[in-house]
Fold:
Amino acid sequence: MDAQKFVIRQISIFSENRPGRLASIAQALGEENVNILAFSIAEANGFGVVRALVDHPEKAYEKLTSCGFNVAFTDVIAVQMKDKPGGLFEIAKVLGDAGVNIEYSYAYSGKKAAVLILRVDHIDDAIEKIQKSGATLLERSIFH
Amino acid sequence: MRCWDPRIEEMSKEDLQKMQYKLLKSLVYRLYSFSPFYHDRMKKQNVHPDDIRELSDVKKLPFMFKRDLRDNYPDKIFTASQEELVRYHVSSGTTGKPTVVAYTQNDLNTWTTSLARGLTSIGLGRGDVIQVSYGYGLFTGGLGMHYGAERIGATVLPTSVGNTERQIELMQDLGATAIACTPSYLLHIGEVAEKMGVNIKTDTKLRTGILGAEPWTDGMRIRIQDWLGIRAYDIYGTSELSGPMFTECAEQKGFHVWSDIALVEVIDPKTEEPLEPGEKGELTITILQKEALPMIRYRIGDISSMTDEVCACGRTHPRIQRITGRVDDMLIIRGINVFPSQIEYALMGIPEVGQHFQIVVERTGALDDMLVRVELNKESFSDKITDLMQIRSKVEHRIKNALNVAVAVELVEPGSLPRFEGKSKKVIDKRSL
Structure:
């Protein structure tokens, strides 16, 4: 089984915490016809990190870099959840029982399913354990 | 030749100080007796030449400032008549009226001797071709260096500033072994040479740079040395001291100030009290041998520290470390003197951030708050907030160690801070005191 197909490339953007920064990022992506599938903002005192799953990560990376942004790729995984009460618990329990440590996470609820996006410390290990637990990992090809 | 004048350069500290005391005493007597300007100043300070009984009594004497030269434009404080003068130099009036400096033949000889000692101490002499790319004219750099280089028997190539391509051709054709210019002009020469397809390292005989007339850093020294394959030495002077005067020796550990020519003090610019060796403060110089325009306790406004330890080269004269800033740039944060250059040095040792910075000072209640904004380097960007927080506390920690003042650090996007040449523009002081 090729675990690599479950590794999803998230783009992470360093941003100062001031008005208009998110608009600049979104405008740049819009101009390149890059669609944002999921995103979150993490903030610390004075700065933040914008994380996004997009349909064309390379294009997004190049465009944002050329606009002067500090951009990096980060590997994440996406786990499918049931879009109903208890859905998050089911998956969170699976991860906890499997000993997968979450560095950060965000989620979206789409038409077909709810999805939990995870950044974990040992990604290969996590993929293996999640698969064994019976939960469904989404393949990279779904996103890009 | 190892020393131009070993008797003086390697004289014991005790004898040097005796000599300085004698020179100071006779200077003070002469000025008190013959110069209305100094006579009035000393009267006002309530000090008489008889009060100078040992070298440290220099601190009883009044200070002198740039404004004294401007207020007495052009020649009111000269202590030689026009017939005795052999040259004028005029400094540009960027901060006000220009100032005029004048020289007797003896003054030129002292200046030239000072440079002859310095150039010899970095291994230059007969057989060297020294390209003088300081401006010739009213500026002291070109002519000063010119006479110093001739005195040690080197061949002078007086290219002055400008026409860089021709400078590079001449450097190659005439085999220049040393160049005297500003560090930024040498960087420019290096860039133009590259465009011309000339590799300074392999296509020229250049091995020494005598660089000064503007502040530069050790980081720049390393870059120049590695890139151009030369040894780069700091040279210091101002027109009030005559011009370029003092150079580093081969050790590259600060420039030697010849004690028979100048008495240097480092003082706290606020309290005006002398500081201990190693402590940073304002350079204050008394020119012990000058006929036309003597200077007593002249406040140069440059910030550095002094060491009185005998140098590894054997010379006993005190050394001044590289100039790290101007008094005009100094900030007082919670009572502590802070120079933006200290932050620059601290940042130089942190690869995660760039070297551009901005300081914002505010007063919250009774306390000063200092914020330093630095650019996060591209390579150091981590998606994890904790990593970024760690970088930020590392920068805070380093700056705090350098300044002895707690600062807050803000990480900003690369390229987002304004780029300025002058240090003072890096400071936004919002305090209304």
